[in-house]
Write a structure and sequence with these properties.
The protein is built from twelve helices and 26 strands. Strands 6, 7, 8, 13, 14, 16, 17 and 22 form an eight-stranded mixed beta sheet that branches. It has a five-stranded antiparallel beta sheet with strand order 4-3-2-1-5. It has helices spanning 50-55, 75-78, 82-96, 105-108, 111-114, 139-149, 225-228, 244-250, 258-261, 273-276, 332-340, 368-371; strands at 28-33, 36-43, 46-49, 115-117, 122-123, 132-135, 166-168, 174-176, 181-182, 185-188, 196-199, 203-204, 207-213, 232-239, 242-243, 264-266, 271-272, 280-281, 301-302, 305-311, 317-324, 351-353, 379-380, 386-387, 395-404, 407-419. It folds into two domains: 3-123, SH3 type barrels; 132-302 and 323-362, Fumarylacetoacetate hydrolase, domain 2 (Alpha-Beta Complex), CATH 3.90.850.10. Strand 20 (305-311) and strand 21 (317-324) form a beta hairpin. The radius of gyration is 22 Å and the shape is globular. It is 18% helix and 27% strand. The termini are far apart. It is an alpha+beta fold.
Length: 422
């Protein structure tokens, strides 16, 4: 186990026990500060200005380029490789731990330069996403959708248990938490009528998580499941917005297009794979047996708790889903191995989302399509209003965290307000 993951490690900063940003976490993000950008880490209620620490000499010996933490995206830092990621995380842990031997910024009078209140920061997209892939890795979700639109006895298509199904999405419309979206418009097909054009009527969220590629492979080179984790930098919460009525009419024969490309929202803090390593668990038994390139050894699923809230414009708040990343059938190592088995080359910053993460029972379903079962079981909000799908003015809030041995490693949240169609 990497030293920063030691559950006995305590910070000298005062941090609430339920904080997502423990000393065992130390995620990365980017904020706009003044006229420039700063790469930050997070601990408790504070953001740690890595550029300031670098200028003050706290990263001596780490061979980090000048200005690396004043970039607009994390991509240049990620490109330095796993050795640099781990060395920096260890140095941050050493600086912040209770028994640190370093001459702290508090003693040098540089507290306000290094430690910034997280609340109110202008957080930016943490990475430049060149390519984005969306998988369909939850058997519970695939079964629910197949049961609704086909037959419970034939819910999964023939290929589903043989490979991680996925499609290539639109990277340009991935946005950071806090960025509002407009209700999308497109072609709709009322039953037994000609198609019409107008605003989406069945706007939905999809509870997902995504990993960020941290190591490239050459065109023609496959990455095995054993190598896959070394090609991942970290993870974010991912809300893959979906226009169900637009999708229903357009998706045959090539799959989602305008119903997905209008927006996907992510959390601003990237939690590293090293911070998540203690939370690996055994996944479901995969039957039939997968092909050799999809086989893996050890525990590869992640025990990450997930939650979705809807906040109405009038302030009514309802928790509509509590799920877990471990419910996925296909794990992230299999997703990456399958993505590259044909020789597809990945780039630093590429994002790969899980697909909707649903659990085995009501209350764990990761989309309104399932929660309300196509609108037949509306959610009743505390103010008495109903939700079959998402209304204008609603804010969807997703949270994610892992807990074990008294240690909490969380992602914060991704929140997005829906505005009327433009």
């Amino acid at each position: 186990m990497l030293a920063p993951n030691n559950p006995e490690l305590k910070p000298w900063l005062e941090i609430p026990l339920n904080s997502d940003f423990s000393i065992q976490n130390l995620p990365y993000g980017v904020a706009k500060i003044g006229e420039g950008y700063r790469v930050l880490s997070a601990i408790g209620p504070f953001a740690v200005n890595l550029h300031a620490l670098h200028e003050l000499g706290y990263f001596e010996g780490l061979d980090l380029p000048v200005g690396i933490f004043a970039e607009k995206y994390l991509n240049p830092f990620i490109s330095l490789g796993q050795g640099s990621w781990r060395a920096l995380r260890q140095r941050l842990s050493d600086l912040l731990k209770l028994d640190t031997s370093y001459d702290l910024p508090t003693r040098k009078g540089d507290w306000s330069r290094v430690f910034i209140e997280r609340e109110g920061l202008d957080m930016q997209m943490p990475v430049f996403v060149r390519d984005y892939t969306d998988f369909y890795s939850s058997e519970y979700h695939a079964f629910n959708v197949g049961s609704m639109f086909r037959d419970p006895n034939n819910a999964l298509l023939p290929n589903w248990k043989h490979l991680p199904v996925g499609y290539h999405g639109r990277a340009s419309s991935i946005i950071v938490s806090g960025t509002p979206i407009h209700r999308p418009k497109g072609q709709l097909k009322p039953n037994d009528e000609n198609p019409v054009f107008g605003p989406c009527r069945l706007l939905d969220f999809e509870l997902e998580m995504a990993f960020i590629v941290g190591k490239e492979n050459e065109l023609g080179q496959s990455v095995s499941t054993a190598e896959a984790r070394d090609h991942m930098f970290g993870m974010v919460i991912f809300n893959d917005w979906s226009a169900r009525d637009i999708q229903k009419w357009e998706y045959v024969p090539l799959g989602p297009f305008l119903a997905k490309s209008f927006a996907s929202s992510i959390s601003p803090w990237v939690v590293t794979m090293d911070a998540l390593q203690p939370f690996t668990v055994e996944g479901p038994k995969q039957e039939p047996e997968v092909l050799d390139y999809l086989k893996f050894e050890g525990d590869k699923h992640l025990d990450i708790q997930l939650e979705v809230d809807i906040l109405s414009e009038g302030g009514s708040l309802a928790t509509v889903c509590q799920s877990n990343h471990k419910f996925l059938y296909w794990n992230i190592d299999q997703q990456l191995a399958h993505h590259t088995v044909n020789g597809c080359n990945l780039h630093i910053g590429d994002m790969m989302a899980s697909g909707t993460i649903s659990g085995p029972e009501e209350g764990t379903y990761g989309s309104m399509l399932e929660i309300t079962w196509r609108g037949t079981k509306p959610v009743i909000m505390p103010d008495g209003s109903e939700r079959k799908f998402i209304k204008d003015g609603d804010k969807v809030i997703m949270k994610a965290w892992a807990e074990k041995d008294g240690v909490r490693v969380g992602f914060g949240e991704v929140n997005t307000k829906v505005l009327p169609a433009g």
